[in-house]
Structures are given as C-alpha cells and as structure tokens.
Amino acid sequence: MTPDYGEKEQALPFRPRERPALHPLTAATAHSWLPMMIRYFLAASFLFLLGFFYAHATLPGLAGTRCQPGSPTDPCSFFEAGPREDPRTDLPRTNSTSRRPQALCTQREYETGHWEPIPLVNITQQVLDFEDTLPNPYGVSWHYCAPMPDIRSAGGGRWNHGKWDEGERSDEETFLEGEKRSVGINAWEWVPEMGRECMVEWDAIDLVVRLLRSPGGLILVGDSITRQHYHSIMHLIASAGITYGSDLPTLPMADHKNVNQHTLNPASPSTALLLSLSGVPKSRILRPIVTYLEDHLFIGQADIREITYRFGAEEGYTWWYDFQRVEDWEKFVQDAARPRYGEVESVREDTVVLLNTGPHWSRNDINMLPKNKLPEEFARLRGCYAAMVDKVTARLNPIPQLSVVYRSTSPGHPGCRNRRTPYFDLRSALYHEANVRQRLLDDAENDKIRDGRKVWDWDLFPDHNDAWRSKIRSLSRRRGSRGASATKKATKGGANWLYMDIWDMSLQRPDAHNEPSDCLHWCMPVVLNEWTYLLHHVLSLQERKMELERVAAKPDSPDSSVPIHWD
C-alpha cells in the first residue's frame, strides 16, 4: 500500500471584512477650514494631556508611582504599539495568529456562549468561491449541503418515504440552493460570553506540534458523527499547509477497514519545520499524528451480552449485530501511547484519546432488553450504558501518559428543516428544543416512521452525557487524592480524564444539520470546527496546568507545598 501524499493549498474561510465608507455628511465637512482648526486645537490639547499623563502617571493602586517598564502592573504598557511578529512564517496559517490573551476563559466559560454572524461581502460571490475557500482534498466533500425546502412554493419539496423530495426543483437549482445554504451555515462563529478574546486562538501548527510531542498523537474513537469530526480536523490541518499521508503499511492495523491513520509527509518542507518546532527526533514522524477508530458501541458482542443479561435480557437471545467495530481498540491505544526508545526526553506529552458513543445506545439497537413501561425500559438502558462506561474506563485508566477526553453527545433537532438560522442564545434553544421525544414523533410523516422513531431515544442523550460526566469527575477526584505531582503521574500513574461539553454550543444550531431528513449529523464543517477549537483550548489549558504542577512539584520550588486549583 502506497501512502498518498499531496501538497495542500492554503484556504481562507471568508473574505476580509470591508471597512465602511465615511458618512456623506462627515465627508462633506471633513475638509472645511473651521472644523479643521477645531480638530487641530483638540488634538494638540489631547497630546499635551497625554504627555503630562505619561510623565506623572497615577493609576488606581499606583498613586504617585511613575511608569516602570517591565513591571507586571506597568501603566506604560498602555503606550506600547503594534503586535509582535510570529517568527514561524514558513507555513501559511489559516485562521491563526500567535496572540495569546493573558486572561483565558476557563473551559466552562468557553462552553457558555452564543453564535454570531460573520459578515459576508457578497453572497453570490461566496457561492461561486465556496469550493475554493473551503476545499477538502481528502475525499469527503462538503461544498454542498442539501437545501431546505422552498416554503414559498408548492413545488418546493415534500416528504417521500422518510426522505425529503426536492419536488419541482431542477438539479441545477437544487445544487445552487445547497451551496447557498452551505455558505449561510458556515457564516457563523461561536463566541463565549466573555468574548473571543479569552479563547486560545486556533492554530493548526500549535496543535500538530503538541501531537508530535506525544507518542500516539490524537486518537478519535466513535461512530459516524465522530468520523465527521475527524474529517473536519484533517481539513483544518491540511488548510494550514501541513501535508500528510494515510495508512502506511508499516503501521499496526494498517489494512483494517475501520482504522485510519495519518502520518506527516517526510518529504514536505512543512514536516521539517514541525520537527524543528516540536524538538522531537525524526523517528516520531513514522507514527500517526491523528488516528480514527470507528467503533460505534465501544464494546463487543461478548461484553454486550454479559451486560444485558444483568439487566433482564433472555439467555441466548438472537441479536443482529452489524456495528462498526475495532476489536481490542483499548490495546491499540495502549500500544500507541507507550514511550519509544530514543524519544523519552522529547516526546513527553500525553497521547490524547477523544471518545464519544451515544446515538447507537438506544432501544432501536440494544433491542434485546425486556419490553415494559417506558420508564422501566429507560432505566434498564441507562444501566447498560453505565456498565459500558465502567468497562471502558477500567481498561483505559491504568495506561500512563494518556489523556482521555470524552466529547459529549451532540443533540438532535427534530424538525430541523424549519430552522434557517441559529438560536439567539442558549435560553431560546432550551425553550424551543424542549420535549425532544414528542416533537420527534410529531414530525413523522406516517405511523410506520413514527413507530420507528419511538425507539431512537434522542431524549436519553443528556443521561448518557451525565453518566460520563459523573464517572470522569469520580476518576479525577481519585487521581487528585493520589498526589499533585504531574511528573510522578506521567511515569507511574494512570490516565488523565477530561470531559468536553459541546452540548450547549451544538443545541443552538438546529439550522446546521446535513439535510432536512437528517437532524442528527452535521453539515460540515463549521460546528465541527468549533468542537476542534474547543479541544485545542482544553488541551492548552491542560498543558498550562501540568506545567504549573511540574514547577510546584520541584523540591526547591517555593510553591511546592501549595495546592493548585484549576477551574
């Protein structure tokens, strides 16, 4: 098998925002003689006061104190001008700068926010340029999302056997409407309530450098929605000018249909720069930076039977099992995360595993449990799901130099074809998306479809998320009680556990699903990209936390006895 390497073109998501022209009244008076003299007088007065302030600066808490450049509370910093240049200019940097705000959002502050529109210069031109501005050279195209029905005409579409039929639209009209919808969906960005200034700025190079400094990089495990997220991550990396290959034959499970592994292209100049920035040996690029394992339920049939028997399933039941699976994927992770000879000093960061499983844990798929009243059926399914969580965490927890991030299951939006824009805020989303089970049934075209939807169990997604949140909280508390030394943990302890909550962010985007008949998967890539930006933020916070712990753990550190609290 020959790896596929290829140069990837730089992509910018949208055109720069244009500066508005002067108001006509302002333009007409801007060059008259009298206003000009007034402006000169005001400007001179301002400069005089500014100079006086600079020489005799007194700020609250600094009364009588002159400017002291270099001080952490330096009032002179007000007068510093111009951003510092990023010396790493060899690679194009899509949607990235080297800016690092001093006051970062906590993870929860980042997860709490709303969507704001990105101004578009010209919607027609955006449609024409969409394939160029968001190219995806790695196989899965997202320049087109199925259009919503045209509510202005009777021929705008209808339900037909559970699928949305475009009716009288021509293929060309359908495609154009789909591209318009894609542009509109991608014309929004997530803004934490504290503002985007508190976010760690997205930088694909920073992420790949972080992944190179770990033995196994980033490993995603999950279902088709996780596969969408994986495609989004690889597109963001490629858009930064980083080239990579797929499924080298020397890698473990290289021929497995549900395993996708990506290594850096050794012949690319971008790889040489990344090696230099990361400080790792060349041997590291022989292993993946990103791996995707498609495993829908996380456990195999033997585990499923053992669990479901505990919750009342009939012994020896017949079960149609055709879910995508990677047997012993936990052992694959363990091998990927182990330190390699010659890399121990430089490849010191944790391998990152990003997990999610949820939609397939429904009565539609776990259909061998006893049938009874709905509350009892839900209680059994919750019990089975919690037992799966226990099994997975028990297998991953002993692995050293591993950070496990569980991404919460994203919500489905019944009747999503009726939404053209995001909700204004979370409060509005919670109001309109309440009672998901009943709305899912009410939206069905006929009784047959309605009966099928009764066992989709989208209303159990929050319970699944709570099971992981509670388990991770318990694991983190137990790990914290063993001591605060990150260095000791990295060599002798177990995995580090994190919970990444994308529920609120995703709940506010009912407009951004694949097509009118699929209100669970996402029209790529905007919502999924925001998940990646959040992951980058979480890993950056974790890196800073670990560095503080390492400093505090040193015997000669003045803060070695001070506990560290990280919210």
Automatic annotation (TrEMBL):
Residues 74-102 are annotated as: Disordered. Keywords: Membrane, Transmembrane, Transmembrane helix. The chain crosses the membrane at residues 40-59. Residues 82-91 have a biased composition (Basic and acidic residues). GO terms for molecular function: O-acetyltransferase activity. InterPro entries: TBL (IPR029962). PANTHER family: PROTEIN TRICHOME BIREFRINGENCE-LIKE 19 (PTHR32285:SF48), PROTEIN TRICHOME BIREFRINGENCE-LIKE 9-RELATED (PTHR32285). This is Uncharacterized protein.
